Amino acid sequence: MAHPVAAELADVVRVEGTRILATLARTTGSLQVAEDAVQEAALRALRDWPRSGVPDQPRAWLTVTARRIAIDILRREGARAGKERESMDLSAGADPPPDSVVRDDRLRLLFTCCHPALGLEAQVTLALRVLCGLSPAQIAAVLLSGEAAVAKRLTRTRTKISRAGIPYRIPADGELPARLAAVCGVLHASYTIAHSAVGGPRLSDVDGCREAVRLARLVHELMPDEPGPMAVLALMLFTESRRAARTGPDGAPVLLADQDRGRWDRALIAEATALLDRSLRRTDAVADPYQLQAAIAAEHARAPAYPDTDWAEVVRLYDILVSVAPTAAARLARAVAVAELAGADAGLRALDGIEPDHRWHAVRGELLARQGRLAEAVAATRAALDGAVSEPERRHRRDRIAAWERATAPVPERDGRADRPVPGLRSGIEKPGGPGRA
After folding, report:
1. pLDDT digit string (tens) for 351-375?
2. Between vectors from CA 435 to CA 384 and to CA 253, what angle results, nearest 5°?
3. Ranges of H-type helices in 29-170
4. Most CB atoms closer than 10 Å: which of 63, 82, 235, 406?
5. Is 197 part of any domain?
6. Is 64 helix (H, G, I), strand (E, B) or coil?
7. Which long-range contacts (CB under 8 A, 24 or more apart) does 325-330 make?
8. Which residue range(s) make up the domain with 60?
């Protein structure tokens, strides 16, 4: 198999696969049939494209192939006549559906994943699989669950959708409130996963971030007076505003302290600020977790330079966030803010009681280095290399380890004394997890 062909196919499936999947799910009435058809179409592309070359319109090729496979699956399974006639319409034409239809299909699929007949955990798991294209192993890493448990949950969820006849449609107005909390949770999770890629060669999945923002805009347009979608969209836009400054020319991460704030998108920041203000007015300033995270992002956005950040206010907002949503990610981000406000000792104390993962070890390593405990910092950061870490982040952490090892290595004596370099430790901490991250 030619590697360039495989790479191109992977990009097509990653970007377009869920669009094809959403349309097939609507027209076949079966999420399982749609997934099987898209997967089989991808396998056929891997088999055929190395011989015939990549088509001029690879998305159209995959769409038509998946349609035909779906028809064959339904026929083999003895689908009822009505469904088979509906599926036959898929074979009429090679062009993919127009964008407006695709947009509606994907929104329909999002709301279907968040159907109240499914448990919240099942809703999120299904959405991460369908909308984000994550494997069971990746979902398990995100949800801190076992891969086998995730696979079983997906199977049970698909079976329940099929047996209960859950429709693939935008719910009526009266049905929307029952699904909105889960929809907001899925939007936030999908953006977070794309923003901080789970493994892989890139720091983030830019296409995934844009798609999450697009869906959040659609939900906000659908329910313009609801504070939840406003806050989730505001949080995403604050984070998107920093994208141009977040990586260097080589793709390496640029920490929040070192970013060129002149490259931040002020139009997105203004839009996010207006959305957050409207959202807070709708709730009489009683903030939910998304509003609090957006408010924290707003504090970073309004500071003209990193030293000007109002860390006391950031810590206050994190204290409230942890009181209403005591997740490990929120507590870890709070520890970073505490370290900026009160020093490394306070930051290390704030890490106590948080379940360690690779980001916890990375933060601990940086705080130890600030105290001059470089050997301990090296050990902690080595532990941060394990887990679902993107390659740019892994290289950044290895660079930190190398710098600290050089700083502690014996140096030749000059004129009877050793000149020992002092490592630069001014702001090596990355904000861990979630759209509030750098």
Report:
1. 999 999 999 999 999 999 999 999 9
2. 50
3. 31-52, 58-76, 81-88, 99-113, 120-130, 136-143, 147-164
4. 235
5. no
6. helix
7. 325/289, 328/354, 328/355, 328/357, 328/360, 329/432, 329/433, 329/434, 330/289, 330/434
8. 1-97
